[in-house]
Amino acid sequence: MCDNYEGVWSVSDLENELNPAQLEVIEHLGAPLKDRPSFTSDLKKHLRSALETSVAHCIEEIPNGESIFLSKHRLSQIHGCEEKFIAEENDDFEWQVATARGTIVHKAIELSVNWRKEIEPSVIVDEAVARLEEDSNSLGHWLQGCSEIERAELRSISVDTFTKFLECWPALKPSWRPVTESRVRADLCNDTLILSGKVDLTLGVAEGNRAGKVIVDFKTGGFNATHHEDLRYYALVETLRIGMPPRMIASYYLDQAHFVPEKVTEELLTATVRRIAQGVERIVEITFMGESPKLKPGPSCKWCLILDDCDTGKKYLDESGYDS
Fold first, then answer.
1. What is the per-residue pLDDT for 16?
2. Which of 98, 108, 147, 318 gives the lowest tally of CB atoms within 10 Å of its CB?
């Protein structure tokens, strides 16, 4: 068991104040300075060069004035079924209760970090909804026009999820430097390739060439192998942004109160460069070079927009025992 995190909390002193789930979070987050990895100051330069070199032949095929915007979701999709990727690219996204819940909860967590009054989950969720409803984006418009039944259901499941966060996580100390909904971005290849994302929670900060930041992605539901890849993507973008990787990335599954950490290494970042390059290559080939997308059936077929017309997907679900 680690003695402390950022020299703030001693686990032995707080065993009577925190529940077991909260203590587990502290144990995972804790790392004395001597145990934190160091990286060379030229790592950013090498990773950037490796990625730009790997995609150079693809970038030449992109018309002038066009760019590729890559997110963790888009990268995950192109590495899955390419037909599903194209279907989602061409579809107008529509908000629903299930998809809005995550944004509401993330906003509630953001507010709770700086909340000066007693934290009441329903009050903070209501404030989160009110703030997001004022926005002029698509979610704001949906919240303004959703039915009372949808609003009630959204409030119910958002309060449930946010309450789980409060139950499972200790209060985030200011000295931990908590930042929620942090946008990260790296522009490459003369702004033709843009890597972007929004991180649920970051804690800590690098000190010189010694890594100190932790990136956390909150999840509802169960484990998916793409969750690891999503976080590795964030780790690379963070490195390309400031030149220093996070020391650890982690998924936290709120329904199970389960922390799944992974240490960041140079090998992990190099592998992520290769994965991004492969994804960019396929996006360019399909979007600009006229290559046909490939079918790749899997569990995500259950939610595919074109499932009704996809015999391959229906066959996969039937043979795998999924209820389509």
1. 65
2. 147
Whether the CB-CB separation of 279 and 70 falls below 8 Å is answered with yes
Tokens representing residue 31 in the block:
């790392």
Rounded to 5°, the CA angle 55-232-207 comes to 105
- According to DSSP, residue 321 is labeled T
Cβ–Cβ < 8 Å for 38, 46: no
* Identity of the amino acid at 263: K
DSSP per-residue string spanning 54-120: HHHHHHTTSPTT--EEE-HHHHHHHTS-HHHHHHHHTSPP---HHHHHHHHHHHHHHHHHT--S---
Contact of 257 with 25, CB cutoff 8 Å: no
Mean pLDDT estimate for the chain: 90
- Rounded-to-integer distance, Cα 115 and Cα 194, Å: 34
Q: Give pLDDT tens digits for 171-229.
A: 888 888 999 889 999 999 999 999 999 999 999 999 999 999 999 999 887 788 889 99
Strands, E, within 136-238: which ranges? 179-188, 193-203, 214-219
pTM for this prediction: 0.90
CA neighbours within 13 Å on the CB side: how many for 11?
Answer: 18
- Token pair belonging to 244: 């220093």
Query: CA 69 → CA 47, 72, 92, 230, distances in Å?
Result: 19, 10, 17, 15
Contact (CB, 8 A) for 249 and 34: no
Q: Does domain 33-92+174-287 have CATH number 3.90.320?
A: yes
> What is the Rg, in whole angstroms, of the alpha carbon atoms belonging to the chain?
21
Distance CA 66, CA 83 (A): 22
Q: CATH 3.90.320 residue ranges in the chain?
A: 33-92+174-287
Helices 148-168 and 97-113 pack at an angle, to 10 degrees, of 50
